[in-house]
């Protein structure tokens, strides 16, 4: 492997080398989304001195085994810049997710895993998108670390790699120098977070606006809502109750009130709701209210008292206890991290 400073300096300005590992069956958007963020960061850096002589904040390269063209899951063919085995050591390596085997399991690319096992520990940062986490785990890079992947694969990742502390809610997780993210678009969120670490918050917000994406979703944001997490009830009456809970978290959502709305007895309602959604109605309500409060803390400047009322909590203290029980943070601490 040729020597290549992971972080070069031109006229006193840092340039970070970023390497995207490609392989047959890679998901095109897993690579293209973060790549566009880094490219946009270069455009930002060019207009915000100090900048390198050519305006670049990042040297972006793609690589595959033997430099071969790769075919993505969508049928798109990508031509990498470099032979992976000869690629200079980068500051940041990004591993996109890929296709699955006929039985639905994830099969990590052997060449990519071999490179990661031999070289990634010398990189300053390691990042994966979606099922790219399986390649990091196979290379031993996630042992003892917190990590995430697409919600449909978290159980598989945990079963295959028990040494990894898998989290199924966040859109991305940082544990030291290793970053992992969930589904396709969360790779953009992760890349924006990396750019923010390097160039500052204004850069990440400007790039997010340019790419017309949500303004820097933080890693603790959930991969999907309570409504998506639970199964949709088969009975129209129960589906209407699910929607009512989401739209009216500050209403009376006790069992008796919800049962009346479904035209069922409380006992029958509780049994039917749990059977059809996979979660008891009380827990469903608790999750919906917490989710509502989290969203309001993230997206508004309303007072904690006002948010507690809008989310359906009887008091600020009740909301604080719910946050501590589930997230280990107070509402104010959660807002500070958002």
From TrEMBL:
Keywords: Transcription, Transcription regulation
InterPro entries membership: Class_I_gatase-like, DJ-1/PfpI, Homeodomain-like_sf, HTH_AraC, INH-QAR
Every HTH araC/xylS-type domain range: 239-337
Gene3D superfamilies, A to Z: 3.40.50.880, Homeodomain-like
Protein's recorded name: GlxA family transcriptional regulator
Species per Swiss-Prot/TrEMBL record: Kitasatospora kazusensis
């Amino acid at each position: 492997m040729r020597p290549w400073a992971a972080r070069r300096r031109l006229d006193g300005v840092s340039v970070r080398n970023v390497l995207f590992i490609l392989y047959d069956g890679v998901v095109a958007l897993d690579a293209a989304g973060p790549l566009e963020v880094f490219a946009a960061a270069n455009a930002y850096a060019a207009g915000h001195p100090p900048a390198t002589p050519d305006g670049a904040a990042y040297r972006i390269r793609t690589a595959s085994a033997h430099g071969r063209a790769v075919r993505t899951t969508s049928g798109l063919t990508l031509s990498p810049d470099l032979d992976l085995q000869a690629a200079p050591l980068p500051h940041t390596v990004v591993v996109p997710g890929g296709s699955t085997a006929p039985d639905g399991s994830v099969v990590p690319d052997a060449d990519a895993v071999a490179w990661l096992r031999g070289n990634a520990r010398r990189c300053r940062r390691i990042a994966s998108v979606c099922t790219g986490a399986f390649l990091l785990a196979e290379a031993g890079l996630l042992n003892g670390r917190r990590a995430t992947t697409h919600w449909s694969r978290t159980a598989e990742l945990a079963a295959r790699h028990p040494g990894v502390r898998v989290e199924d809610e966040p859109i991305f997780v940082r544990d030291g120098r290793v970053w992992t993210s969930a589904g396709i678009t969360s790779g953009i969120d992760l890349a924006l977070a990396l750019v923010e670490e390097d160039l500052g918050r204004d850069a990440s917000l400007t790039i997010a606006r340019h790419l017309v994406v949500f303004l820097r979703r933080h890693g603790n944001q959930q991969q999907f809502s309570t409504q998506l997490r639970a199964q949709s009830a088969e009975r129209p009456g129960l589906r209407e109750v699910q929607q009512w809970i989401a739209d009216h978290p500050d209403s009376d959502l006790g069992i008796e009130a919800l049962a009346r709305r479904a035209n069922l007895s409380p006992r029958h309602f509780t049994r039917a709701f749990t059977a059809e959604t996979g979660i008891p109605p009380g827990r469903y309500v608790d999750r919906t209210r917490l989710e509502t409060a989290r969203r309001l803390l993230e997206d508004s400047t309303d007072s904690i008292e006002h948010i507690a009322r809008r989310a359906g909590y009887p008091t600020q203290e009740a909301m604080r206890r719910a946050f501590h029980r589930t997230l280990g943070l107070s509402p104010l601490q959660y807002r500070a991290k958002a």
